[in-house]
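Before a colleague's protein record goes any further, I have to sign it off. What it holds is a sequence and that sequence's fold in token form. Would you go through it and say whether the fold makes sense for this chain? The record follows directly below this note.
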Amino acid sequence: MSDAIKSTVSTFLIDNFRFGDTSVAIADDESLIETGFIDSTGVLELVAFLEDTFAITVADTDIVPENLDSLAAIARYVEHKGGKAA
């Protein structure tokens, strides 16, 4: 399921933060914040997307780089939370 999560999240990020520019590739371990792909407001949008799409609840204490700063981290986090595609 990890690859499916990464693909879904990558599509969301490209559509919403790069306006559908598919020439922008996101490496699995690339820091989304350090590279400027998303900012703090973008993280909140990402959290809302994850909650809606994967039927999980993201606690405020879970909004940390270890969980949300790369596609790989996001996939691990969503799987840990038992996320399921909506």
